[in-house]
Amino acid sequence: MWRKMAIMAALAAISAGCTTMSAQDRRAADEAKCRSYGFLKKNDAFAECLQRIDLERRAELRSTPAFDPWDRPVFYRPIIIQPQPK
Fold first, then answer.
1. Do residues 54 and 26 touch, judged by C-beta distance below 8 A?
2. Fewest beta carbons within 10 Å, which of 5, 17, 31, 48?
3. What pLDDT sits at residue 32?
4. What is the model's pLDDT at position 86?
């Protein structure tokens, strides 16, 4: 009985760490970061700060490779379709 409770508590604690941020939470965190740098809302510098954070996030996503459990190369070959003569 106690073993089951301990396992359930451990699984709950582990799964609680696997949450993702919503778009609103991410925006609020970005705005808080820009405010901590001293930028004021509704300002060009504040908008530029938000833009730089977003661009850094996108660049980081592009730099991380896609998950491939076998780490094998992927080859793309074009498929050429020729029209059939009538």
1. no
2. 17
3. 95
4. 76
| CA-based R_g, the chain, Å | 24
pLDDT > 90? residue 67:
no
CA atoms within 13 A on the CB side of 7: 4
> How far is C-alpha 18 from the chain's CA centre?
13
Mean pLDDT value across residues 35-61: 93
* Verdict on whether the full-model pTM lies above 0.85: no
